[in-house]
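If you are new to this repository, start here. Below is one unmodified record pulled from the training split, so you can see the exact layout before writing a loader.
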Amino acid sequence: MVNDHILLVNFIKHYHGNTKSIADVTPKASQADFRAVFLTSATTIVGLMPTLSETNLQAQILIPLVTSRCFGLLVSTVLVYFWCLLHMLS
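And here is the target side for that same chain:
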């Protein structure tokens, strides 16, 4: 979740410069950030999937933690995408 927002702020700072306002730069930064947010979130979720499917007794303690992390990341990614799409359309 934090990585998605760090990437978005980084893209906005990159496109901002000294001459443009943030309102003018945000749609372009959101469009450029779209792929980076998707790849960051997808690799993290896919990397946590083996832990979710583990049946070992020792791993059973971690499954609630990994489940909340996966679904929290999924929800935050959808919210960041919604924010990016909102600014790309405006």
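Two things worth knowing about this chain: The helical segments are 2-16, 22-52, 63-89. The longest helix spans residues 22-52.
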